[in-house]
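Async update (no meeting this week)

Hi team, since we skipped the sync, here's where things stand on the single-chain job. The sequence we agreed to prioritize is pasted below, unchanged from the tracker. I ran it this morning and attached the output directly underneath so nobody has to dig for it. Comments welcome in thread, and please keep replies under the output.
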Amino acid sequence: MLVPRRFRHILVLSLTLVLLGLALVSPDAQAQTPRLQGQSASAAAMGNAFVAQADDPSALHYNPAGMTQLHGFQTLFGTSLIGGTTQFTSPTGVQATGDRNGSLAWPPPGHVYLVANLKDLGFSALGDFSAGIGFNNPFGSLTRYPNDGPFRSALTFTTLPLLDIKPTLAYKLNDQLSFGLGADIYTFSGLFGEGHLEQKSVWPGGFGIPPGALEINGSDTTAGFNVSLLYTPYRNSEGKPLVNIGMVYRSQATFHLTGTLLSNGALVANTAATFVLPQVFSGGIAVWPVRTPDREWKLEFDVDYVGWKSNRTLDIHLSNGGLLPFPQNWQSGYTAMFGTEYRWLHLSSLPEWDVALRGGYMNQQTQIPDRTFNPGVPSANSHIPSVGIGLACHPNGSFLGLIRCGDLGIGPLKPKLFAIDLAYQAALYEVRTVSGNQNPTVNGRYDTLIHAGSLSFRFNY
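Output:
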Protein backbone atom coordinates (compact mmCIF):
# COMPACT_ATOMS: atom_id res chain seq x y z
CA MET A 1 0.00 0.00 0.00
CA LEU A 2 1.34 3.45 -0.94
CA VAL A 3 1.66 5.86 1.97
CA PRO A 4 -0.14 9.17 1.27
CA ARG A 5 2.24 12.12 0.96
CA ARG A 6 0.52 13.96 3.80
CA PHE A 7 1.01 10.94 6.04
CA ARG A 8 4.75 10.90 5.28
CA HIS A 9 4.94 14.46 6.60
CA ILE A 10 3.00 13.40 9.67
CA LEU A 11 5.47 10.57 10.29
CA VAL A 12 8.33 13.08 10.30
CA LEU A 13 6.44 15.37 12.70
CA SER A 14 5.54 12.39 14.91
CA LEU A 15 9.17 11.34 15.23
CA THR A 16 10.13 14.90 16.14
CA LEU A 17 7.45 15.06 18.84
CA VAL A 18 8.36 11.65 20.22
CA LEU A 19 11.95 12.79 20.68
CA LEU A 20 10.69 15.98 22.30
CA GLY A 21 8.42 13.89 24.49
CA LEU A 22 11.24 11.71 25.75
CA ALA A 23 13.07 14.87 26.76
CA LEU A 24 9.98 16.46 28.31
CA VAL A 25 8.45 13.48 30.09
CA SER A 26 11.22 13.11 32.62
CA PRO A 27 9.98 10.74 35.30
CA ASP A 28 12.67 11.79 37.76
CA ALA A 29 10.40 14.52 39.12
CA GLN A 30 7.08 13.26 40.33
CA ALA A 31 4.35 14.64 42.51
CA GLN A 32 3.96 13.35 46.03
CA THR A 33 1.02 10.99 45.60
CA PRO A 34 1.18 7.41 44.28
CA ARG A 35 -1.19 8.14 41.38
CA LEU A 36 -0.77 11.35 39.38
CA GLN A 37 -4.17 12.43 38.10
CA GLY A 38 -3.40 15.55 36.02
CA GLN A 39 -2.25 14.27 32.61
CA SER A 40 -3.28 17.33 30.56
CA ALA A 41 -4.00 20.91 31.52
CA SER A 42 -7.52 20.87 30.09
CA ALA A 43 -8.54 17.80 32.11
CA ALA A 44 -6.70 18.95 35.25
CA ALA A 45 -8.66 22.22 35.20
CA MET A 46 -11.89 20.19 35.28
CA GLY A 47 -10.86 18.11 38.28
CA ASN A 48 -9.75 15.38 35.84
CA ALA A 49 -13.42 14.67 35.07
CA PHE A 50 -12.62 13.85 31.43
CA VAL A 51 -13.40 10.15 30.96
CA ALA A 52 -16.69 10.90 29.19
CA GLN A 53 -15.70 14.10 27.35
CA ALA A 54 -12.37 12.73 26.02
CA ASP A 55 -12.30 15.03 22.98
CA ASP A 56 -8.67 16.09 22.73
CA PRO A 57 -5.49 13.97 22.34
CA SER A 58 -5.28 13.36 26.09
CA ALA A 59 -8.20 10.99 25.50
CA LEU A 60 -5.39 8.49 24.83
CA HIS A 61 -4.85 8.51 28.60
CA TYR A 62 -8.28 9.35 30.05
CA ASN A 63 -10.44 7.25 27.70
CA PRO A 64 -8.80 5.85 24.54
CA ALA A 65 -12.20 5.12 22.97
CA GLY A 66 -12.65 8.89 22.77
CA MET A 67 -9.83 9.07 20.20
CA THR A 68 -12.47 8.28 17.56
CA GLN A 69 -13.92 11.77 18.16
CA LEU A 70 -10.73 13.37 16.82
CA HIS A 71 -10.09 14.16 13.17
CA GLY A 72 -6.89 14.20 11.13
CA PHE A 73 -3.67 14.17 13.09
CA GLN A 74 -3.54 15.83 16.52
CA THR A 75 -0.79 16.31 19.09
CA LEU A 76 -0.78 17.52 22.67
CA PHE A 77 2.19 17.99 24.95
CA GLY A 78 2.83 19.80 28.21
CA THR A 79 4.09 19.69 31.76
CA SER A 80 3.21 20.46 35.38
CA LEU A 81 5.03 22.50 38.01
CA ILE A 82 4.43 20.91 41.41
CA GLY A 83 5.37 22.27 44.81
CA GLY A 84 4.26 22.26 48.40
CA THR A 85 5.22 20.93 51.79
CA THR A 86 4.34 18.42 54.49
CA GLN A 87 4.73 19.68 58.05
CA PHE A 88 5.35 16.93 60.63
CA THR A 89 4.86 17.40 64.37
CA SER A 90 5.78 14.56 66.74
CA PRO A 91 3.80 13.78 69.92
CA THR A 92 6.56 15.59 71.86
CA GLY A 93 6.43 18.68 69.64
CA VAL A 94 9.49 18.00 67.46
CA GLN A 95 8.91 19.29 63.91
CA ALA A 96 10.24 18.55 60.43
CA THR A 97 9.28 19.84 56.99
CA GLY A 98 9.20 17.70 53.87
CA ASP A 99 9.27 19.11 50.35
CA ARG A 100 9.52 17.99 46.72
CA ASN A 101 13.32 17.92 46.88
CA GLY A 102 13.12 21.71 46.63
CA SER A 103 10.44 24.35 46.13
CA LEU A 104 9.37 22.62 42.90
CA ALA A 105 9.79 19.06 41.70
CA TRP A 106 12.46 19.29 39.00
CA PRO A 107 12.64 18.32 36.21
CA PRO A 108 8.83 18.46 36.09
CA PRO A 109 6.59 15.56 35.06
CA GLY A 110 5.15 15.85 31.56
CA HIS A 111 2.76 14.38 29.03
CA VAL A 112 2.88 13.84 25.25
CA TYR A 113 0.10 12.41 23.04
CA LEU A 114 0.01 11.82 19.27
CA VAL A 115 -3.29 10.64 17.75
CA ALA A 116 -4.20 9.95 14.11
CA ASN A 117 -7.61 9.22 12.58
CA LEU A 118 -6.50 6.66 9.98
CA LYS A 119 -9.59 7.12 7.81
CA ASP A 120 -9.00 10.88 7.58
CA LEU A 121 -5.40 10.25 6.54
CA GLY A 122 -6.35 8.10 3.55
CA PHE A 123 -6.45 4.63 5.10
CA SER A 124 -10.21 4.20 4.61
CA ALA A 125 -9.85 0.48 3.83
CA LEU A 126 -8.99 -0.11 7.48
CA GLY A 127 -12.35 1.21 8.69
CA ASP A 128 -12.99 3.76 11.43
CA PHE A 129 -9.76 3.19 13.36
CA SER A 130 -7.71 5.74 15.25
CA ALA A 131 -4.19 5.10 16.49
CA GLY A 132 -1.91 6.90 18.87
CA ILE A 133 1.01 6.79 21.25
CA GLY A 134 1.47 8.61 24.53
CA PHE A 135 4.14 9.20 27.16
CA ASN A 136 3.35 10.29 30.72
CA ASN A 137 4.02 9.72 34.41
CA PRO A 138 0.83 8.18 35.88
CA PHE A 139 2.39 7.04 39.18
CA GLY A 140 5.17 8.52 41.22
CA SER A 141 6.53 10.11 44.36
CA LEU A 142 9.28 12.57 45.26
CA THR A 143 9.71 13.62 48.89
CA ARG A 144 12.67 14.87 50.92
CA TYR A 145 13.03 15.33 54.69
CA PRO A 146 16.04 16.65 56.69
CA ASN A 147 18.83 14.16 57.33
CA ASP A 148 18.64 15.07 61.03
CA GLY A 149 14.83 14.82 61.19
CA PRO A 150 12.91 12.92 63.88
CA PHE A 151 12.17 9.88 61.65
CA ARG A 152 15.50 9.77 59.77
CA SER A 153 15.78 6.05 60.57
CA ALA A 154 12.63 5.51 58.49
CA LEU A 155 13.06 7.97 55.64
CA THR A 156 14.93 11.02 54.42
CA PHE A 157 14.26 10.76 50.67
CA THR A 158 12.10 8.72 48.32
CA THR A 159 11.40 8.76 44.60
CA LEU A 160 9.39 6.56 42.24
CA PRO A 161 10.30 7.73 38.70
CA LEU A 162 7.94 5.83 36.41
CA LEU A 163 7.46 6.42 32.68
CA ASP A 164 4.41 4.96 30.91
CA ILE A 165 4.62 4.38 27.14
CA LYS A 166 1.12 3.95 25.70
CA PRO A 167 0.61 2.53 22.16
CA THR A 168 -3.16 2.61 21.61
CA LEU A 169 -5.90 1.77 19.09
CA ALA A 170 -9.56 2.82 18.99
CA TYR A 171 -12.42 1.70 16.75
CA LYS A 172 -15.71 3.46 16.04
CA LEU A 173 -18.41 0.84 15.66
CA ASN A 174 -21.17 3.37 14.88
CA ASP A 175 -22.22 6.90 15.85
CA GLN A 176 -23.11 5.72 19.33
CA LEU A 177 -20.37 3.30 20.35
CA SER A 178 -16.57 3.30 20.24
CA PHE A 179 -13.97 1.00 21.81
CA GLY A 180 -10.34 1.44 22.77
CA LEU A 181 -7.48 -0.95 23.50
CA GLY A 182 -3.97 -0.04 24.57
CA ALA A 183 -0.81 -1.18 26.28
CA ASP A 184 0.87 0.46 29.27
CA ILE A 185 4.61 -0.16 29.18
CA TYR A 186 6.03 0.98 32.52
CA THR A 187 9.74 1.48 32.90
CA PHE A 188 12.37 2.98 35.19
CA SER A 189 14.41 4.26 32.28
CA GLY A 190 18.11 4.92 32.83
CA LEU A 191 17.77 7.72 30.27
CA PHE A 192 16.42 9.92 33.06
CA GLY A 193 18.63 10.54 36.06
CA GLU A 194 19.38 7.41 38.08
CA GLY A 195 16.24 5.76 36.71
CA HIS A 196 15.17 3.62 39.65
CA LEU A 197 12.89 3.47 42.66
CA GLU A 198 14.91 4.80 45.58
CA GLN A 199 14.53 5.27 49.32
CA LYS A 200 17.11 6.76 51.66
CA SER A 201 17.36 6.86 55.44
CA VAL A 202 19.96 7.28 58.18
CA TRP A 203 20.85 3.86 59.63
CA PRO A 204 21.67 3.82 63.37
CA GLY A 205 23.85 0.71 62.96
CA GLY A 206 23.30 -3.00 63.50
CA PHE A 207 22.92 -6.30 61.60
CA GLY A 208 26.45 -5.91 60.29
CA ILE A 209 25.65 -2.61 58.57
CA PRO A 210 27.64 0.40 59.81
CA PRO A 211 25.78 3.55 60.86
CA GLY A 212 25.30 6.27 58.26
CA ALA A 213 23.45 6.94 55.01
CA LEU A 214 21.46 3.94 53.79
CA GLU A 215 20.00 3.62 50.30
CA ILE A 216 17.76 0.93 48.78
CA ASN A 217 17.00 1.06 45.06
CA GLY A 218 15.55 -1.10 42.31
CA SER A 219 14.24 -0.98 38.74
CA ASP A 220 12.45 -3.08 36.13
CA THR A 221 10.23 -2.82 33.04
CA THR A 222 6.77 -4.35 32.89
CA ALA A 223 3.50 -3.97 31.02
CA GLY A 224 -0.23 -3.84 31.53
CA PHE A 225 -3.18 -3.08 29.30
CA ASN A 226 -6.28 -0.91 29.16
CA VAL A 227 -9.70 -1.34 27.54
CA SER A 228 -12.32 1.38 27.18
CA LEU A 229 -15.63 2.36 25.65
CA LEU A 230 -17.49 5.55 24.85
CA TYR A 231 -21.27 5.55 24.44
CA THR A 232 -23.10 8.56 22.98
CA PRO A 233 -26.90 8.13 23.25
CA TYR A 234 -27.81 11.71 22.24
CA ARG A 235 -26.38 14.18 19.73
CA ASN A 236 -27.51 17.62 18.52
CA SER A 237 -28.44 18.50 14.93
CA GLU A 238 -24.77 19.08 14.11
CA GLY A 239 -23.83 15.60 15.29
CA LYS A 240 -22.02 16.75 18.44
CA PRO A 241 -22.59 14.75 21.64
CA LEU A 242 -25.11 15.99 24.18
CA VAL A 243 -24.58 13.01 26.52
CA ASN A 244 -21.50 10.80 26.71
CA ILE A 245 -20.86 7.81 28.96
CA GLY A 246 -17.29 6.56 29.31
CA MET A 247 -15.75 3.52 30.98
CA VAL A 248 -12.10 2.47 31.28
CA TYR A 249 -10.34 -0.51 32.85
CA ARG A 250 -6.57 -0.38 33.48
CA SER A 251 -4.95 -3.67 34.45
CA GLN A 252 -2.64 -4.49 37.30
CA ALA A 253 1.09 -4.57 36.47
CA THR A 254 3.85 -6.27 38.47
CA PHE A 255 7.49 -5.20 38.73
CA HIS A 256 10.22 -7.63 39.72
CA LEU A 257 12.67 -5.04 40.96
CA THR A 258 16.40 -5.65 41.13
CA GLY A 259 18.85 -3.19 42.64
CA THR A 260 21.30 -2.63 45.47
CA LEU A 261 21.52 -1.90 49.18
CA LEU A 262 24.17 0.75 49.83
CA SER A 263 25.64 1.95 53.10
CA ASN A 264 27.56 5.23 52.92
CA GLY A 265 27.82 4.62 49.18
CA ALA A 266 29.35 1.14 49.54
CA LEU A 267 27.61 -2.02 48.33
CA VAL A 268 26.15 -4.18 51.11
CA ALA A 269 24.13 -6.58 48.96
CA ASN A 270 22.16 -6.86 45.75
CA THR A 271 18.40 -6.67 46.21
CA ALA A 272 15.20 -8.12 44.73
CA ALA A 273 11.58 -7.18 45.45
CA THR A 274 8.10 -7.32 43.93
CA PHE A 275 6.09 -4.13 43.47
CA VAL A 276 2.51 -4.15 42.15
CA LEU A 277 0.71 -1.28 40.45
CA PRO A 278 -3.06 -1.44 41.03
CA GLN A 279 -5.88 -2.09 38.64
CA VAL A 280 -8.08 0.96 38.06
CA PHE A 281 -11.76 1.17 37.07
CA SER A 282 -13.00 4.54 35.79
CA GLY A 283 -16.49 5.62 34.78
CA GLY A 284 -18.08 8.93 33.96
CA ILE A 285 -21.01 10.75 32.40
CA ALA A 286 -20.82 14.09 30.60
CA VAL A 287 -23.85 16.25 29.77
CA TRP A 288 -23.95 19.39 27.62
CA PRO A 289 -26.95 21.51 28.75
CA VAL A 290 -25.89 24.05 26.11
CA ARG A 291 -24.29 23.11 22.79
CA THR A 292 -24.92 25.61 19.99
CA PRO A 293 -22.71 26.99 17.21
CA ASP A 294 -21.80 29.89 19.53
CA ARG A 295 -21.55 28.39 23.01
CA GLU A 296 -20.98 25.08 24.79
CA TRP A 297 -21.44 24.17 28.44
CA LYS A 298 -20.42 20.78 29.80
CA LEU A 299 -20.95 19.14 33.20
CA GLU A 300 -19.23 15.84 34.04
CA PHE A 301 -19.06 13.49 36.99
CA ASP A 302 -16.48 10.65 37.17
CA VAL A 303 -15.51 8.00 39.70
CA ASP A 304 -12.25 6.03 39.91
CA TYR A 305 -11.78 2.84 41.88
CA VAL A 306 -8.07 2.14 42.52
CA GLY A 307 -7.19 -1.37 43.73
CA TRP A 308 -4.31 -0.47 46.03
CA LYS A 309 -5.01 -3.58 48.11
CA SER A 310 -2.72 -5.38 45.64
CA ASN A 311 0.20 -3.59 47.31
CA ARG A 312 0.58 -6.02 50.21
CA THR A 313 4.34 -6.02 50.75
CA LEU A 314 7.58 -4.62 49.42
CA ASP A 315 9.95 -7.04 51.21
CA ILE A 316 13.58 -6.69 50.12
CA HIS A 317 15.42 -9.97 49.52
CA LEU A 318 19.20 -9.61 49.85
CA SER A 319 21.81 -11.55 47.90
CA ASN A 320 23.53 -12.47 51.19
CA GLY A 321 20.39 -14.35 52.28
CA GLY A 322 18.95 -11.59 54.44
CA LEU A 323 15.44 -10.15 54.30
CA LEU A 324 14.30 -6.61 55.00
CA PRO A 325 10.53 -6.73 55.63
CA PHE A 326 8.47 -3.81 54.32
CA PRO A 327 4.78 -4.68 54.82
CA GLN A 328 2.42 -2.32 52.99
CA ASN A 329 -1.19 -3.59 53.32
CA TRP A 330 -2.57 -0.61 51.43
CA GLN A 331 -6.31 -0.18 51.03
CA SER A 332 -8.33 0.24 47.85
CA GLY A 333 -10.24 3.48 47.51
CA TYR A 334 -12.36 5.78 45.41
CA THR A 335 -11.77 9.16 43.84
CA ALA A 336 -14.77 11.30 42.91
CA MET A 337 -14.31 14.00 40.26
CA PHE A 338 -16.58 16.78 39.09
CA GLY A 339 -15.79 19.19 36.27
CA THR A 340 -17.37 21.83 34.09
CA GLU A 341 -16.37 23.77 31.01
CA TYR A 342 -17.99 26.82 29.41
CA ARG A 343 -16.76 27.58 25.90
CA TRP A 344 -17.33 30.62 23.68
CA LEU A 345 -16.86 29.73 20.01
CA HIS A 346 -17.37 33.12 18.29
CA LEU A 347 -16.33 36.09 20.37
CA SER A 348 -16.40 39.42 18.51
CA SER A 349 -13.56 40.69 20.71
CA LEU A 350 -11.37 37.70 19.80
CA PRO A 351 -12.12 36.74 16.20
CA GLU A 352 -10.78 33.34 15.13
CA TRP A 353 -10.32 32.28 18.77
CA ASP A 354 -12.32 29.96 21.05
CA VAL A 355 -12.20 30.63 24.79
CA ALA A 356 -13.01 28.06 27.49
CA LEU A 357 -13.30 28.60 31.23
CA ARG A 358 -13.00 25.48 33.38
CA GLY A 359 -13.41 24.43 36.97
CA GLY A 360 -13.47 21.22 38.96
CA TYR A 361 -13.16 19.36 42.23
CA MET A 362 -11.66 16.02 43.27
CA ASN A 363 -12.04 14.07 46.48
CA GLN A 364 -9.48 11.34 47.15
CA GLN A 365 -9.48 8.74 49.90
CA THR A 366 -6.38 7.76 51.80
CA GLN A 367 -4.96 4.34 50.91
CA ILE A 368 -2.26 3.76 53.55
CA PRO A 369 -3.11 2.53 57.09
CA ASP A 370 -1.37 3.98 60.15
CA ARG A 371 0.59 0.78 60.75
CA THR A 372 2.52 0.99 57.47
CA PHE A 373 2.31 4.75 56.83
CA ASN A 374 5.36 6.10 55.00
CA PRO A 375 6.14 9.84 55.35
CA GLY A 376 7.35 9.79 51.75
CA VAL A 377 3.73 9.40 50.61
CA PRO A 378 1.64 11.94 52.59
CA SER A 379 -1.52 9.91 52.23
CA ALA A 380 -4.64 11.46 53.71
CA ASN A 381 -8.17 12.22 52.57
CA SER A 382 -7.82 15.21 50.27
CA HIS A 383 -9.90 17.91 48.59
CA ILE A 384 -8.57 19.25 45.30
CA PRO A 385 -10.27 22.27 43.68
CA SER A 386 -9.07 23.37 40.26
CA VAL A 387 -9.53 26.15 37.72
CA GLY A 388 -8.24 26.79 34.23
CA ILE A 389 -8.60 28.43 30.87
CA GLY A 390 -8.28 27.21 27.29
CA LEU A 391 -7.50 29.37 24.25
CA ALA A 392 -7.85 27.84 20.78
CA CYS A 393 -6.74 29.72 17.68
CA HIS A 394 -8.00 28.97 14.15
CA PRO A 395 -5.70 29.31 11.09
CA ASN A 396 -6.53 32.96 10.37
CA GLY A 397 -6.17 34.03 13.98
CA SER A 398 -3.09 35.88 15.20
CA PHE A 399 -0.77 34.48 17.88
CA LEU A 400 0.54 37.31 20.08
CA GLY A 401 -0.12 39.64 17.15
CA LEU A 402 3.03 38.36 15.48
CA ILE A 403 2.16 35.31 13.40
CA ARG A 404 -0.90 33.61 11.96
CA CYS A 405 -1.85 30.53 13.95
CA GLY A 406 -2.04 28.59 10.69
CA ASP A 407 1.66 29.27 10.13
CA LEU A 408 2.82 27.67 13.39
CA GLY A 409 3.39 24.28 11.81
CA ILE A 410 6.54 22.44 10.76
CA GLY A 411 7.33 22.44 7.06
CA PRO A 412 4.27 21.73 4.89
CA LEU A 413 2.13 20.82 7.90
CA LYS A 414 0.03 23.83 8.89
CA PRO A 415 -2.30 23.43 11.88
CA LYS A 416 -6.04 23.76 11.54
CA LEU A 417 -6.13 24.65 15.23
CA PHE A 418 -3.56 25.71 17.81
CA ALA A 419 -4.55 25.66 21.50
CA ILE A 420 -3.02 26.60 24.83
CA ASP A 421 -4.48 25.21 28.07
CA LEU A 422 -3.62 26.35 31.59
CA ALA A 423 -4.70 24.83 34.91
CA TYR A 424 -4.12 25.27 38.62
CA GLN A 425 -4.86 22.65 41.30
CA ALA A 426 -4.56 22.95 45.08
CA ALA A 427 -4.42 19.65 46.99
CA LEU A 428 -5.79 20.31 50.47
CA TYR A 429 -4.97 17.28 52.61
CA GLU A 430 -6.95 16.72 55.76
CA VAL A 431 -4.78 16.76 58.88
CA ARG A 432 -3.66 13.23 59.61
CA THR A 433 -2.44 11.93 62.95
CA VAL A 434 -0.56 8.64 62.66
CA SER A 435 -0.32 6.28 65.65
CA GLY A 436 0.74 2.67 66.10
CA ASN A 437 3.25 2.75 63.22
CA GLN A 438 5.75 -0.11 62.95
CA ASN A 439 8.45 2.58 63.30
CA PRO A 440 7.36 4.69 66.33
CA THR A 441 9.39 7.70 65.14
CA VAL A 442 6.85 8.12 62.31
CA ASN A 443 3.93 8.63 64.72
CA GLY A 444 2.65 12.19 64.79
CA ARG A 445 0.68 14.85 62.93
CA TYR A 446 1.03 15.53 59.19
CA ASP A 447 -0.20 18.76 57.54
CA THR A 448 0.16 18.76 53.75
CA LEU A 449 -0.61 21.35 51.07
CA ILE A 450 0.39 20.82 47.44
CA HIS A 451 0.12 23.21 44.49
CA ALA A 452 0.25 22.22 40.82
CA GLY A 453 0.21 24.39 37.72
CA SER A 454 -0.18 22.70 34.32
CA LEU A 455 0.44 23.88 30.77
CA SER A 456 -0.42 22.05 27.55
CA PHE A 457 -0.09 22.89 23.84
CA ARG A 458 -2.27 21.29 21.19
CA PHE A 459 -1.97 21.22 17.39
CA ASN A 460 -4.71 19.84 15.14
CA TYR A 461 -3.75 19.06 11.53
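Quick observations from my side:
Residues 5-460 form a domain with the Porin fold (CATH 2.40.160.60).
The mean pLDDT is 88.
Reply here if anything looks off.
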